[in-house]
Amino acid sequence: MTSTAVVIGATGGIGGAIARELKGGGRYDRLVALCRSGNSVDGFEAGTIDVEDEETVQRAAAQVGEADLVIVATGLLHGDGYGPEKTYRSLSEEGLARAFQVNAIGPALVAKHFLPLLRREGRSVFAALSARVGSIADNRLGGWYGYRASKAALNQLIRTLAIEHRRKFPNSLCVALHPGTVDTALSKPFQSNVAEDKLFSAAYAARQLLTVIDGLDPEQTGRIFAWDGQEIEP
Predict the structure, then answer these.
(1) Which Pfam families match (predicted)?
(2) Which of 5, 33, 137, 194 could be cross-linked to 233 through a Cys-Cys bond (beta carbons 3.0 to 4.6 Å apart)?
(3) Start-to-end C-alpha separation, the chain
(4) pLDDT tens digits along 22-58
(5) What are phi and psi of 90, to 5 degrees?
(6) Residue 182 pLDDT exceeds 90
């Protein structure tokens, strides 16, 4: 039986590092890297996906077929005319819609088409990168309205997806993961106040996240976990 791992957003900082770790681990017979450009990743079967375009998500799912591990490593913190708002005075309909489209709606559409692909026999995992700032309980600083709210929405979507998915896939997990602050283009403008020991390399974050995934039990589906394996309160 061929085992398959899929990385969506495989040319991004964390997604690329996850892909490299998966390749080096040698645990999966088939590795699939999906991204908007369709660029290949060494050792991976390449494919095109745009989480803002459901038609491409559906086509990518048809390409993949059955899977054991699906990781959604896409996200938007800044760029394309959007940046985290420091005050409510900076809120805009366009900015909020953009954040929700990429950080919540996109992964939800991926789940719609990829959750049915997870293998029924044995353990399988669907994981999406979230963020600690999406925790409502942990919000003590305010700001970053669109990013916080869209990641909170993602966490709720993951929880709801997990409840439904488990009814037919009892050995499957659907979880959200917080990678920490990782030295990538996504976090680059916001690293000045991050302690040196709290700024992780992409390779380190990828290893930690895959270790967390490996240690999870199906009973833990629907939850949010940080890079160190600690559960994050919604």
Answers:
(1) adh_short_C2
(2) 137
(3) 37
(4) 999 889 999 999 999 888 788 899 999 999 999 999 9
(5) -95, 0
(6) no
Q: Is the dihedral of CA 3, 154, 79, 53 positive or negative?
A: positive
In sequence order, the 6+-apart residues with CB closer than 8 A to the CB of 25 are 210
Q: For residues 51 and 74, is the Cβ–Cβ distance under 8 A?
A: yes
Residue with tokens 């899977």: 67
Phi, psi of 74, deg, nearest 5:
-100, 160
Question: What is residue 2's predicted lDDT score, i.e. its pLDDT?
Answer: 86
Whole-angstrom distance, CA of residue 150 vs CA of residue 57 = 20
Q: What are the structural domains of the chain?
A: 4-226 (3.40.50.720)
Torsion of CA 138, 71, 158, 164, to 10 degrees: -160
Dihedral through CA 197, CA 201, CA 207, CA 211, nearest 10?
40
Q: Please state, in angstroms and rounded to a whole number, the distance separating the CA atoms of residues 40 and 154.
A: 28
Query: How far apart (Å, rounded) are the C-alpha atoms in residues 141 and 9?
Result: 29
